[in-house]
Design a protein that fits this description.
The complex is a heterodimer of chains A (558) and B (173).
Chain A: H1 3-58, H2 66-88, H3 95-98, E1 105-108, E2 112-121, H4 125-130, E3 142-147, E4 151-152, E5 154-159, E6 162-167, E7 173-179, E8 185-191, E9 196-197, E10 203-206, E11 209-212, E12 214-215, E13 217-220, E14 227-233, E15 236-240, E16 248-252, E17 255-259, E18 267-268, H5 270-288, E19 298-299, E20 310-312, E21 318-321, H6 349-372, H7 387-395, E22 398-407, E23 412-420, E24 433-436, E25 445-448, H8 454-457, E26 465-468, E27 475-480, E28 483-487, E29 493-494, H9 496-500, H10 514-519, H11 523-539
Parallel strand pairs in A: 25-29
Antiparallel strand pairs in A: 1-2, 1-22, 2-3, 2-4, 5-6, 5-19, 6-7, 7-8, 9-10, 10-11, 12-18, 13-14, 14-15, 15-16, 16-17, 20-21, 22-23, 24-25, 24-26, 27-28
Chain B: H1 2-52, E1 54-55, H2 57-68, E2 74-83, E3 104-108, H3 109-117, E4 121-122, E5 128-135, H4 140-148, E6 160-166
Antiparallel strand pairs in B: 1-4, 2-3, 2-5, 5-6
Helix pairs in contact in B: 1-2, 1-4
Chain lengths: 558, 173
């Protein structure tokens, strides 16, 4: 055979093969790039939803109340769908059809979480007939898109007489409900804090720092050069009017509402109350026998031991087991004996158990929700979340979004995104307290606690205070029917060393924690920090407080 | 006779192999690079609008120039969903500036171009802005592909990019 024949035969065979190969490879490349672009879109949409949540909650004075919060969350979910719809529009998906591929949006909050997804509406005609007009119940038959009931980070424990449900939160706040060791009903809530002593009328000691009642705080609204005395009680800020009739007022729905009651104009005792009530809460827990509970006392809703309550990482290794771990028969609420094994430290037995409960609750409910989410097109499954993502979820309020079942060429897309919301009124974390050098000087600065040499820097600022980070966010107020003013409650600027560039910070060792770091900063800084942490945590809205709670702060009785 | 036919076929095949194939893969790569340029430019343009809350003619021209510099002609579509601040458009409860709860009204490319030709277009927090870019000419890569296997239709494009999202800043301050 001539060489030409061979060449022709060779080419005729090789040409189709190489064509097919190049097509196949380009399809694979396309799949990978589509997957990356879908990941980006999902991240963007999740971020937009968090941004909407932040803007809405900061400008909503009642955002921490349950039904107001539901509105904020639904608005954030709408923002998610709107945003993801916009970015997918050109690819041919719209908001409506995309919601079929989103089995769940999980809004993790302070002491529980909401799942926003399509679900089967089981509201029947009989119930529908009895509902008053104007009710928010939806009579649509079949699948509807909305929020499912709130799920708390809670766990039930049985031991001897004790049968309680303990609800955990993103910090060291717990709620205990049920029957205590002596067979009585119990319903208490409070912060778990060790090393509190010497409670007196005006001061209390915490970690060798004396926490006193602070002078009243002042904050700016939209008027320049006017500082209002204010106090934040149960999530609501009350301001003292300057001039006019000097009444106290609060801002609700961006409008000013005047009240008759008066609060203290000289002191703010929120921090003092925080530590004092924590000390009382410790006594209450010990009296009720709750401090003897261990992780293996945990039971499910039927009273059976939680044998399957095991937390594993992505490689299948057991990280925490309720029944068999090394700590499973050690008391959860171990207050410790020294500053180094205090209950509020991140590595305490309580915190390990708390994180395990939070993670177990989310994993269990979410995998059920995802598996039951079926629109007949795709078998929805919960993906394994990475350890870093879990750390994000358990540290702060966040949004987990899932997007599954869209065909991207060679594969079916299955992705999720976790975005942290570090500016919210839901939770005061240890990292959200900043130190203002001079609160009355609007050209002053605020600093992170880890700012190098902050203690000596502050020596020339006698009025320094600690402040919650959302107080530096812009808010809005309606001054008249058609006028909206924006303002910053504290107009200080972020320090360039520790906040903006973040080059002038001390790093906290991995085997240490922020409490030990603060202890090493000297007494004054520690006092500022612990006072602010206590004040802001105590000022937050708490569901268990009754309407009488605010009365103890009244200076007059109207 | 038979020999020369085979020789001719061999020469044709050799020509295809030595010229058309490299050309095809080269033009494919060119399209890939154009795609990357266009995607980057679109993302940059949209993110700039989103984070500044402002759409100016100079930004738009710079963006246009960047995508045209790939040597292709493009169809640029912009869409602005503006948050309707008139209270109670949808429900009696809706707060007027609440993001995610309200009605949006939408303006498209020609209206946006009209607005920015006479001054900056100011956007506000909660608006949504998106842009899509598609090539309208037939690139060399497409021509060569069509030569071998026709995938052409009315709407085929090889270079396309889109980006969009919420505006996070008020344009007028």
């Amino acid at each position: 055979m001539k060489i030409q024949y061979l060449a022709v035969v060779f080419i005729i065979i090789m040409l189709p093969i190489s064509l097919v190969f190049s097509e196949y490879i380009s399809a694979q490349v396309e799949t990978v790039s589509l997957q990356i672009s879908f990941d980006t879109k999902l991240d963007n949409a999740t971020y937009d939803a968090i941004k909407a949540f932040q803007i809405n909650t900061i400008n909503n004075a009642t955002s921490d109340l349950a039904d107001s919060k539901i509105r904020d969350i639904e608005a954030a979910a709408n923002a998610f769908y709107k945003s993801i719809g916009t970015s997918f529009n050109m690819v041919g998906y719209d908001t409506e059809s995309l919601s079929n591929y989103v089995p769940a949006l999980v809004f993790t909050l302070y002491d529980g979480f909401y799942i926003h997804s399509q679900f089967e509406n089981t509201l029947d005609d009989e119930t529908m007939d009895n509902i008053k007009p104007g009710s928010t119940y939806d009579g649509t038959e079949g699948q509807i898109l909305g929020l499912k009931p709130y799920i708390s980070y809670s766990c039930r424990y049985q031991s001897g007489n004790i049968d309680v449900t303990i609800t955990y939160s993103l910090d060291n706040y717990i709620t205990v409900q049920g029957i205590d060791a002596s067979g009585n009903g119990i319903n208490i809530a409070g912060y778990l804090i060790s090393n509190i002593s010497n409670s007196t009328e005006n001061s209390i000691r915490y970690r060798d720092v004396t926490i006193e009642k602070e002078p009243a705080l002042t904050q700016q609204l939209y008027k320049n050069d006017v500082r209002y005395i204010y106090t934040k009680i149960n999530g609501q800020r009350y301001y003292k009017e300057q001039g006019k009739d000097d009444k106290w007022f609060y801002i609700s729905n961006n409008r000013v509402e005047t009240i008759e009651e008066e609060f203290s104009e000289t002191e703010n005792d929120m921090a003092y109350r925080y530590y004092k009530e924590a000390l009382e809460f410790r006594d209450a827990l010990e009296t009720a026998g709750i401090t003897s509970l261990t992780p293996d006392d945990a039971v499910d809703e039927n009273g059976d031991p939680l044998t399957d309550a095991v937390i594993t990482n992505a490689d299948g290794e057991v990280i925490y087991s309720f029944m068999e771990g090394p700590n499973s028969n050690q008391p959860i609420f171990d207050y410790g004996t020294s500053k180094n094994n205090a209950i509020e430290l991140p590595d305490s037995k309580f915190n390990e158990h708390r994180l395990a409960v939070i993670r177990y609750t989310i994993e269990k409910n979410l995998s059920v929700a995802l598996a039951n989410y079926n629109n007949g097109t795709y078998d929805f499954r919960m993906p394994k979340l990475s350890e870093e993502d879990w750390a994000t979820i358990m540290n702060n309020v966040s949004l987990i979004s899932f997007l599954q079942g869209i065909s991207i060429g060679g594969k079916i897309y299955n992705g999720y995104s976790v975005i942290n919301n570090n500016k919210n009124e839901e939770v005061v974390t240890e990292n959200s307290i900043y130190i203002i050098d001079d609160p009355t000087d609007s050209s002053g600065h605020y600093h992170r606690i880890t700012h190098k040499g902050l203690n000596s820097y502050l020596s020339s600022y006698p009025n320094a205070i600690g402040m919650f980070n959302i107080e530096f966010e812009r808010r809005s107020i309606e001054t008249s029917a058609n006028e909206r003013r924006y303002y910053y409650p504290y107009r200080q600027l972020g320090c360039y060393d520790c906040y903006v560039l973040q080059t002038g910070n001390d790093t906290i060792n991995t085997d240490s924690n922020i409490y030990e770091y603060v202890d090493s900063c000297g007494n004054r800084l520690a006092k500022l920090y612990y006072t602010a942490l206590g004040r802001e945590r105590y000022s937050m809205y708490k569901i268990y407080r009754t309407t009488d709670f605010i009365q103890q702060f009244y200076n007059n009785s109207p | 006779m038979g020999d020369s036919l085979i020789t001719i076929i061999a020469i044709v095949l050799a020509a295809v192999l030595m010229f058309i194939f490299p050309l095809m893969s080269m033009s494919d790569r060119t399209d890939d690079i154009s795609q990357l340029t266009v995607q980057t430019a679109t993302t940059e343009f949209v993110d700039n609008v989103r984070t500044t809350g402002k759409l100016t003619m100079s930004d738009y021209s710079a963006f246009e120039q960047k995508v045209y510099s790939t040597g292709n002609s493009f169809d640029i579509e912009m869409q602005l969903d503006s948050l309707d601040e008139n209270p109670a458009k949808k429900t009696a409860q809706a707060s007027q500036t609440k993001i995610g709860e309200n009605v949006y009204y939408t303006i498209y490319t020609s209206q946006i171009l009209g607005a920015i030709s006479s001054g900056d277009l100011l956007l506000k927090e909660g608006d949504m802005f998106s842009t899509s870019v598609k090539n309208t000419n037939t690139t060399l890569g497409q021509q060569l592909k069509n030569f071998f296997y026709t995938v052409a239709g009315n709407d085929t494009y090889t270079i396309a990019a889109e980006h969009g999202g919420y505006v996070t800043a008020n344009g007028n301050n």
